[in-house]
Specification:
With 443 residues, the chain is of the alpha/beta class. The chain is 37% helix and 24% strand.
């Protein structure tokens, strides 16, 4: 017996900027393929944007365009609201209002979920609707689905990701051309890889939003962005990238989250990191993203692709729309939980303070070129039970009287390293602030 046709899923789009425009185009271009997968049509029937005239030009006469997002939420024929406005403010209000109105929500807003995710997911659970957010982390890479579903048999041990294309482009250019950060940032802005105000990217905040979301899904804990340790790339120098290369490493801005059973906690941190050049993730260049996930059963898995852009991000938005089209009539208790674990099974495992994190370190010291300097430094490290893995010393130029000393350590606690560095910095033969960059083997 032939199944009667099912009506379309109707979508209201809040914001038709870069990603919104890409979403509209992908849905239109691949409508037949999407219908075959979803079992029904998915149609954007109304768009809200402050620039109504521009929005009308983008979507043509077949789609209603309004200037007030609340008009979209209030329409009874809308099944799914797609929030692509961004930010913490009005986006939070609109998402909560859409949930209260019984609408499913799709969002690419990592900042919103990293800060207010617990509130939003609880509201959705109480109302029996879905909040889908694949596009919030790593653009077109389906890392959220992999963590929530594909790796569900695993006890995730750690995640490390290049999850901000702007910073990866800058670091790639610094390494390739030997230029300092400020020079490359200006070039990145000229080419459109960096915003006019790139603060969230270059200070690591954007990556920390995404790492927070992945950590919550991987370990079944509430989102806790305020507990993340965040460092950007603004203080990196071309010299450190060159020294790292000589030692067989590359410097990447990584978002890292790790289960620490020995301390009963979770590491959640974003910072520049030395990675062995032979690792696949060390060879991710330009504006590309990559995420490495270590599970106890599957071992190491790598997810690579475009982390931003109109259509890569739209790919993730449309995938979420298809998921909701398939599941929106299902019993809410039978859907995949927002954070992969059942809501009443979320753990209260704490995020560890940074001084409890264990990692190896790269140290660059500008020291006087005289006898006894190295002995004084190694004695401080030995007293702190910090062992040295490798050293590199640049020959002092004629008449310079000072040189760079590079030390790689084995794993040690951050707190102990900081105490040792304070002693080293106090030596009269250490002539400049010591550069400290963390090092991860990711093996």
């Amino acid at each position: 017996m032939k199944t009667p046709p099912i009506g379309p899923i109707r979508v209201g789009l809040l914001g038709i900027g870069t990603v919104g425009g890409g979403t509209y185009e992908v849905l239109k271009r691949n409508a037949a393929e999407i219908r075959r997968r979803a079992g029904r049509d998915i149609e954007i029937t109304v768009v809200a944007d402050l620039d109504v005239e521009r929005a009308c030009r983008l979507v043509g006469p077949g789609v209603a365009v309004v200037g007030d997002a609340r008009e979209v939420i209030a329409r009874p024929d809308i099944d799914i609201v797609v929030e692509l406005i961004g930010g913490y403010g009005i986006a939070r209000t609109l998402v909560l209002e859409a949930i209260a109105a019984g609408k499913h929500v799709v969002t690419a807003n990592k900042a919103l979920l990293a800060v207010h995710g617990t509130e939003i997911f609880e509201a959705a659970r109480e109302r029996g609707v879905m909040v889908a957010f694949e596009a919030a982390v790593a653009g077109g890479i389906p890392i959220i689905k992999a963590l929530r579903e594909g790796l569900t048999a695993n006890r995730i041990q750690w995640i490390a990701g290049i999850i901000n294309g702007t910073t990866n482009f800058i670091l790639s250019e610094m390494r390739d051309k030997g230029l300092d950060f400020d020079v490359v940032l200006k070039e990145a802005q000229r080419l459109g890889y960096a915003e006019a105000d790139p603060t969230f990217d270059i200070e690591g905040v954007d990556a920390a939003h995404k790492a927070t979301i992945m950590s919550a899904i991987a370990f079944g804990v509430p989102v806790q962005f305020n507990k993340a340790h965040v460092e950007g790339i603004t203080k990196l120098q071309a010299a450190d990238i060159e020294y790292a290369e000589q030692l067989g490493y590359r410097i990447k801005l990584l978002g890292i989250t790790r289960r620490r059973d020995d301390l009963g906690g979770i590491e959640l941190r974003v910072h520049p990191t030395l990675v062995p050049a032979k690792r696949l993730i060390a060879n991710v260049e330009g504006a590309m993203n990559a995420v490495v996930v270590q599970g106890d059963a599957v071992g190491t898995t790598l997810y690579y692709g475009k982390g931003a852009g109109a259509e890569p991000t739209a790919s993730a938005v449309v995938a979420d729309l298809v998921d909701i089209a398939r599941l929106h009539t299902a019993d809410p208790d039978h859907r995949v939980p927002h954070l992969a674990f059942q809501p009443d099974a979320l753990a209260s495992t704490p995020i560890l303070p940074m001084d409890k994190v264990r990692t190896a370190f790269y140290l660059r010291l500008r020291v006087a070129d005289q006898t006894g300097v190295l002995a004084s430094l190694t004695r401080i490290l030995a007293d702190a039970e910090i062992s040295i893995d490798a050293m590199l010393q640049r020959e002092a130029g004629e008449g310079e009287g000072q040189t760079d000393l590079i030390i790689l350590t084995h794993d040690t606690e951050e707190g102990g390293m900081n105490a040792a560095l304070a002693q080293m910095q106090g030596l009269p033969t250490v002539l400049a602030p010591i550069v400290k960059i963390r090092k991860e083997e990711l093996a």
